[in-house]
Amino acid sequence: MDFTEALPVWKRLDEYSKNKLAASVLNRKAAKGTVVHSGSIECTGLIIVKSGLLRAYIISPDGREISIYRLFERDMCLLSASCIMKSLSFEIIIEAEKDTEYWLIPANIYKEVMEESAPLANYTNEIMATRFSDVMSLLEQIMWKSMDKRLAAFLYEESAIEESNILKVTHENIANHLGTAREVITRMLKYFQSEGLVKLSRGTIEILDLEKLEKLAKEE
Fold this sequence. Notes:
This protein is an alpha+beta fold.
């Protein structure tokens, strides 16, 4: 897959914009666990996932992580190039959850083309609106959803991503995704196990009742 196929707006760009972007795009690889962007690093650039899985998260003042969203194949991350957007400051970290290949368009190049191309500027605004919706959705979950429902939703989503009911994930990993303490996740998983939803073993969670887990995740 070429990066132009992952950029829906490509066909609406003029030749100058196409040539500018094509000449600047970089191919990158990141092994699982690699941080590809950190809020403390100067504007990385626009990231488009070719294959693999990236996780975008923030860290609280006390060091607790919480995932904002995940980036799958063809997904784009603008917050790694937040310097191109006026008055936008976001201390986000992006880490490879799996071995990942991605394209990187340097922030200065993307900004230059965006300022000259109405189609690219409009598309950029659409992407930012989508990510803003992701953040608002997360905020609503934190404020209004209990931890058992959030955990159920995470396990259900993880099962879909891995296409398996056997998940190789630690309690610490889950806590980092959901922005809570490991002890909270351990206690909740033990409750799930007592209810017949999951079976726990070292480093592994086996989902026994996916339908019931989904129902719990979707409860108001």
